Amino acid sequence: MSASDAHPAAPPACPAAGSGLLPAELRAWMVLLAATGAVEQRLRSVVKENLDVSHDEFLILCLLAEQPGTGLRMTQVADLLGRPKTRLTYQIACLQRSGLVTRRSVCGDKRGVEVALTEQARDLLGETSALLADTVRQALTDSMGPDQRAAMCALVPEPPDPDEAPSGG
């Protein structure tokens, strides 16, 4: 950890509502992008050090981890992560060589390929999940002050009140 990591700069001030050219939704989007960048920057080194994979490979592992007992087609992974299929093929091959994913043909579809986590990957993610979650939380804490948090919360709709019956006819 460098000195700049130990004492991060204060988050930039979020523009006041109604100031500038951007509507609140675009200001919130910019806050979200900055926070995401801060999280990715912190996670890169932690992921490499503890999982020995790249950040993009880590995203694949996380996506597959949300599929208990099953896998996903390569096309689904590419679509969900917004990655080119050719790049994904390389990343999956790296993960397979590391013993973290399996690949198999989809029954009835000679071009379809499904990928899934191995038990080794599940164990590794289980062992490191608390550290990774703390890294995300700390990066968000360091990059978002009260103004940025308020901007983000204003973008997220309120959940429906469970005591209110839905209107209908």
UniProtKB/TrEMBL annotation:
Superkingdom field: Bacteria
GO biological process: response to stress
InterPro entries: HTH_MarR-typ, MarR/SlyA-like, WH-like_DNA-bd_sf, WH_DNA-bd_sf
PROSITE patterns for this protein: HTH_MARR_2 (PS50995)
SMART domains listed in its UniProt record: HTH_MARR (SM00347)
Ranges for domain HTH marR-type: 25-161
Single GO molecular function: DNA-binding transcription factor activity
Protein name: HTH marR-type domain-containing protein
Natural source organism: Streptomyces filipinensis
Phylogenetic classification of the source organism: Bacteria, Bacillati, Actinomycetota, Actinomycetes, Kitasatosporales
